[in-house]
Amino acid sequence: MTGPSENPADLDRSNPEAEIGARAEAYRNWGRWGEDDVLGTLNLIDPAHRVAAAGLVQEGRVISLAQSFDTNGPQKGWRRRTNPVHTMTDTGTDAERANQGFPHGIGGADDVISMPLQCSTQWDGLGHIFDHGFAWNGRRAGDVVTSEGDLVTGIEHAASVIVSRGVLLDVGRHLQPETGELADGYAITAADLEACAAAEGVTIGRGDIVLVRTGQLARTRRDGWGDYAGGPAPGLSLTTAGWLHRTEIAAIATDTWGFEVRPNEFDAPAFQPLHQVVIPNMGLTIGEMWDLDELAEACASSGRYEFLLSAAPLPITGAVGSPINPVAVL
Fold this sequence. Notes:
Elements: H1 16-26, H2 47-54, E1 62-64, E2 85-90, H3 92-96, E3 110-114, E4 122-124, H4 141-144, E5 145-146, E6 149-150, E7 163-170, H5 171-175, E8 187-188, H6 190-200, E9 209-213, H7 216-223, E10 235-236, H8 241-246, E11 251-254, H9 273-282, E12 285-288, H10 293-302, E13 306-310, E14 321-323, E15 327-329
Parallel strand pairs: 7-9, 8-10, 9-11, 11-12
Antiparallel strand pairs: 1-15, 2-3, 4-12, 4-14, 5-6, 7-13, 13-15
C-alpha cells in the first residue's frame, strides 16, 4: 500500500505537523471537481446512487438520528458554544387572557431559538476548518470566510445534495460485543473499519455516507454528559485518512463530539489533526453528535446495515455548519 502508514504505531508522535502534512498532500482533492467547486466529496453522490438507495427501503420505518436541541445538551461554553436557548414569544396563557390582539377568539403560540449552529447533531461545512491559512480547493481562508460568513462554500450549497445510501459501521458493537461501547481514547483504524464492514456483510463505496457508531453517546446517556463536549472520546485515527479517501465516500458522521479520537494521537500539542486533513484538503463533509443507537438496534435485529439516508442541512446563507435532523429510512 502506497502513501502514509495506516498503522497508528507508525505515527511520529512528536511531529504532528509532518504527519498531518504528509496526509494532506497525499489525499488532497483540490481541483478534482473544478476550480469553482463548493461541494467537495458530496459530488460523489449522483442520481443513480440515490435511486439505488431508495430501493433499500423495505419497511418504510423512519429513524431520526438527531440528539435533542435543548438546554440539557452537552455544551459547556467552549469557544462560545452553548446549548440552545428556547424562548416563547406567544403562549397559551396569552391566548386565554385575550391579550394578543386577535379577533373572534383565535389565539396562537410562537417561539424563538438561539443557538450555535454546531451545538448538537450537525454537519461541519467546508468552510469550517483551514490548513495553514487555506480553505477547501486551495482558496485563501480570508477570501472564503469573512465577518459576512462563508462567501464561497456556505452550507446552503448542500441543501439539496445529502441524500444517499447510508451505511452503519457499528464499531462499538463489533469490537466490544458485550457492551457495544469503545473506551474513551480508542483510535479506530482503517483495519477496524474494514473488519466491521466485513462482519456486517456490507461494502463501502463511491457516494456512500458512512455512520460510525462508537457507543460513547450510549455511555453518556447512562452516566451523564461529563466531558462529552471536547473531552476524551473514541474516534477515528489520523491514519484512517487514506481509507476515507480511497473509498470515495461522500460524507461521514459519528456519535461523538469531534469525529476523531481524543486525546489526539500526539505527545506534542495537537488539535483535531484529521479535521485539518479531510475538510480543507479532501473536501469531506463531517457529521458529529449523531444519535445512532436506535438505528444500531434496528440494524442488528434485521442484519441489514444499509439504508436510505436523508440529512439535509438548513440553507443558512454563508454558514460553516448546520444543525440537522438526519433520518434513516429502512
